Amino acid sequence: MAFEFLKPVLTPNALATVQANPVLLAYLLGWLFAIIFVGLLAWYISFVTGQAYKKPAKKPDPKKAGAAPAKGSGPSGAQKLKSFLKI
């Protein structure tokens, strides 16, 4: 009989129903593919429109071009005071 390949996944009652009225299986598969297609279409539209409105890449600020200096690498407090007071 037809649809015997569905025996491992369907109960005997469901298999008898599909064999008696195969249009039900066609409707099920048709709606399943339609829902998957609409979902993929919605994802594709959101993906494409998301790329169009992507934020531009930030250009590096020349003032902040270098990395932060290591702690203690700058002038000490006494040196800053001397330069301020010009001693």
TrEMBL record:
<keyword id="KW-0812">Transmembrane</keyword>
<keyword id="KW-0472">Membrane</keyword>
<feature type="compositionally biased region" description="Low complexity">
    <location>
        <begin position="65"/>
        <end position="78"/>
    </location>
</feature>
<keyword id="KW-1133">Transmembrane helix</keyword>
<feature type="region of interest" description="Disordered">
    <location>
        <begin position="53"/>
        <end position="87"/>
    </location>
</feature>
<protein>
    <submittedName>
        <fullName>Uncharacterized protein</fullName>
    </submittedName>
</protein>
<feature type="transmembrane region" description="Helical">
    <location>
        <begin position="24"/>
        <end position="45"/>
    </location>
</feature>
